[in-house]
Design brief:
Number of helices: 9
Largest sheet: 8 strands, mixed
Distance between the termini: 73 Å
Radius of gyration: 20 Å
Strand order of the largest sheet: 1-2-4-3-5-6-7-8
CATH topology: Rossmann fold
Number of domains: 1
Helix content: 25-40%
Number of strands: 8
Strand content: 15-25%
CATH class: Alpha Beta
CATH architecture: 3-Layer(aba) Sandwich
Amino acid sequence: MKKIKLAFILLALAYLAANIYLYTQQDSLIFKNEKAVKIELVNEKNIKEVTFKVEENINLYGKYKTSNKANAPLILYFGGSSSDITGFFNHTQDINDFNILGFNYRGFIDSQGSPSQNKIFKDALNIYDTYAKDKEVILIGKSLGTGVVSYLASKRKSKAIILITPYDSISAIAKGKYPIFPIDLLLEHKFESIKYIQNVTTPIALFEVKNDLVIKKQHFDNLKSNIKNIFSYEILEGVSHAKVMTHIDFEKKLKEILEKTKNSQ
């Protein structure tokens, strides 16, 4: 009986330790800023470096591509969990009828501070209100950034939304990975795209990676089934989640989707 009791105590302690680990390490599990690698800009034409002050002594680093076209719409881009926004500019070199703006999240390449869901959401609203207010805006997010865009789109006006490898929520993904733990109690950064997207009436385009090993199909499909206003849906094969923008057809398909937004009301 004493051995059984001891085993139970040890098991309970191990479970408690695992909960503590998940709670204290969630930032590094979600925001992989330490793994982000700085990317060199392939073509600097019409692209300038910009900084945006979000708090005292905290500036975000970004890039701004200006179109030669008068009154060009503005694309606001939000990247993934371990990315440098420069990569998006390298894969949109032929998109010249739009202004494009993107910032690295707090704590990511050349941006100061530390990331959290609430801080990223707050910064997204401030970026929109500073650069996009009263403009024709297209919101684009990749992976983690699709959660940011879903939130932003529920709070601000946009002409179209493009979600690249989106998910229903970080909470749902975590529950799938750690089913025996009380994720709702432990997780501070839930990124509940499925909650926010239901309040969005803007036309939405989706990019899915076939056999995505990061965003399981069930999480993509769950989000997709809750979107009523899909105007474009692309499935890319033979590419990984992280390398989706390197797909040979990515820029062409993105350009086609953006062309469709010009004709939408």
